[in-house]
Amino acid sequence: MTVWDLDRDQWWPNHIIESAWLGHTPFAAWLIPNLEPKVIVELGTHQAVSYMAFCQANAKITDPARCFAVDTWQGDDHAGKYDDSVFHNVQKLNERYEQFSTLLRCRFDEALNQFEDGTVDLLHIDGLHTYEAVSQDFYSWLPKMSDRGVVLFHDTEVRDRDFGVWRLWEELIKQYPSFSFQHGFGLGVLVVGRDAPENILKVCQPNEASDFAKDFRSLFSRYGNEVIEHYQLLHEAEEKKSLSGRWKHAMKTTWRSYVPISIRKTLKTFR
Ligand SMILES: C[S@@+](CC[C@H](N)C(=O)[O-])C[C@H]1O[C@@H](n2cnc3c(N)ncnc32)[C@H](O)[C@@H]1O
Fold first, then answer.
1. pTM here?
2. Residue whose CB lies within 8 A of the most ligand 1 atoms, among 14, 76, 85, 132, for a mutation test
């Protein structure tokens, strides 16, 4: 399978809700069949936009990987704190993939001992985005990576607040074959395994300015933007619906509070 083989049915995600990762869901659909991982681990799942994109693609391959989503499902300083309903929603979403997918509700470092060294083929790092946190996540999980291992980093383009993924990324790309998308806050693809599939290396070893790199980047940015635009339309429609509901409710209650009870009773008899 090459990048040009993808049709819309293959890259369109089922799980479309608010997330900074939405724009990368089409790339997840390309990556899984090209990497053919046996074990996928995600560090930082929240409402599972990225994780569901991996699972959706994984369900379609001949020999699906075992997938693990690791998160406390409590939130952090960047994602904000949230309540248990988020985890319960992800549990429901996961039912569809439970033959190969497991949710590990714990800290990233607590999950480490559940994996043998050299066994993880795809690691997605999307937890807290400070330089210290993301470095800790990368270096503590690196021994777990297999010979065909690929690590994804989200938010490589974000340079405000105390985000520091970009800094670690600049260090790592000097040591490993890599590729990065600039859209959707940036997604870095780092090949840490010595024996990665040819298609992955083809993407990760080009001259950044080559026609291939430009085409690959612009194709997935276009697909990603289509998903984001679709979400925005859904969101606007939802907003309108809830606004009109609130408006109707306000009119009803305002009318009640201004019209005296005696008149309201009389009006009711005419209905
Ligand atoms: C940016 S969100 C993940 C976004 C998600 N990948 C998506 O597709 O929208 C980061 C998540 O990482 C979790 N997190 C951050 N640091 C963690 C840690 N050390 N251990 C476990 N979970 C952590 C937070 O609870 C939060 O849900």
1. 0.89
2. 76
